[in-house]
Design goal:
By secondary structure, the protein is an alpha/beta fold. Strands 3-4-5-8-9-10 form a six-stranded parallel β-sheet.
Length: 297
């Protein structure tokens, strides 16, 4: 079995508790990691272990990182007041679900949730650790329009990110989420080279900063489904975006074995007139990943 244990890293982040994954996953196996540029993050071994564990067969990651505003809309639909007490009760209900650990390897939390506790006073990260679930944290701060693009966006949140990641690590988080959003519009030529490069570089800087503080970055260049484009066009755009992202990750010396990719499914736009089978979407998605992604590990 794989379990979590607490130790202390004396070489980095002095006096900070460090949770490490041990067990059948890497038992008796030395983790050898190195970047092409010769630089290795201080937490390289832990990053690789965490990334592998998050990708455990038959398990997924629970996204419980709704912002206060978003969860308020959901509460309103069932007549529940949007206050911290109710948000805490809702998250505790999720995290304390019986046998949740059989299907979930990690949980992405909103910052407020990371510092909340159960009704008995057990911090949520500790509750998850005891269930052998890795706590994660959303670190981006939303999107803004890229000047000169007439509507394309870039994700913000790099300012102060290293300090925030250090605090999140100390609180028990071991991975992070950052979402970049790209839109497809054939008439406008979206996503433009500017939007792709801006979002790819920002994702890479986020990833490098997270790794420097011990967090596994989920790299998420999401291409939205909106529009009348074909699946072939979506595949072409996805390949370009992935290639751009992995070029930026390499330029920023990101340890790929210590990352996770959250790609979009390659599918036709929501306004496309012709039907598309799940087999076609699966084929084009795998093809795009093989052509645009960089396998590691």
């Amino acid at each position: 079995p794989i379990f979590l244990s607490q130790s202390h890293d004396q070489s980095h982040h002095q006096h900070r508790p460090m949770w490490t994954l041990k067990g059948a996953l890497l038992l008796g196996t030395a983790v050898s990691v190195a970047c092409s540029a010769g630089w290795v993050p201080n937490h390289a071994h832990e990053l690789v272990q965490t990334a592998k564990f998050l990708g455990s067969d038959g398990k997924g990651i629970l996204a419980a990182d709704e912002s206060t505003g978003t969860i308020g809309k959901r509460f309103a639909s069932i007549g529940v007041e949007n206050n911290e007490a109710n948000r805490q009760k809702y998250r505790e209900m999720l995290f304390s679900t019986t046998k949740i650990e059989e299907s979930i390897s990690g949980v992405i939390m909103f910052e407020e949730t990371l510092y909340q506790s159960t009704a008995e006073g057990v911090p949520f990260p500790e509750l998850l650790h005891h269930k052998n679930i890795v706590p994660g944290i959303k670190v981006d701060t939303g999107v803004v329009e890229i000047p000169g693009t007439c509507g394309e966006t870039a994700t913000t949140g790099l300012d102060g990110l290293a300090k925030r990641c250090a605090r999140y690590y100390q609180a028990g988080a071991r991975f992070a989420k950052w979402r970049a959003v790209l839109r497809v519009d054939e008439k406008r030529g979206w996503p433009s080279s500017l939007a792709m490069q801006d979002n790819a570089w920002t994702l890479a800087r986020y990833a490098a900063i997270c790794q420097s503080e011990g967090l596994v970055p989920i790299v998420e260049p999401e291409i939205l489904m909106d529009g009348p484009h074909s699946i072939e066009h979506c595949a072409m755009v996805t390949e370009k975006v992935l290639a751009c992202v992995y070029k930026a990750l390499a330029d920023n010396r990101v340890l790929l074995e210590g990352t996770m990719l959250k790609p979009n499914m390659v599918c036709p736009g929501s306004e496309y007139s012709k039907p598309c089978s799940t087999e076609e979407m699966a084929y084009f998605t795998v093809q795009a990943l093989r052509r645009g992604g960089a396998p590691a590990g």
